[in-house]
Amino acid sequence: QVRLVESGGGLVQPGGSLRLSCAASGFTFSWNRMNWYRQVPGKERELVASINSISTITNYADSVKGRFTISRDNAKNMVYLQMNNLKVEDTGAYFCNTGGLTGYWGQGTQVTVSS
User: What band does 7 get if pLDDT is binned at 50, 70 and 90?
Assistant: First the structure.
């Protein structure tokens, strides 16, 4: 079955960096677009970044452009989210996803940006 396992979250000060990782299994990873979403309590889940199957097209939410970078390694079935210059408003649970809102989800990893 499809399995997505995120890691790398934590507590970081404003201006700091974190790298999230997602290990994928149970499907043909190299064929699928991969996404990172985040959710804050009381708000809808927000698409933060996406990457196509061969890493030629990436898309970012306006709020993270220039600070976050999504990447993938098809040989390792991994997708990453490098987050730099983190802001308090980046706080939330980050989810790895394939297939969009009706697709498959990991369990999430918490990112807290606070001084």
Answer: very high
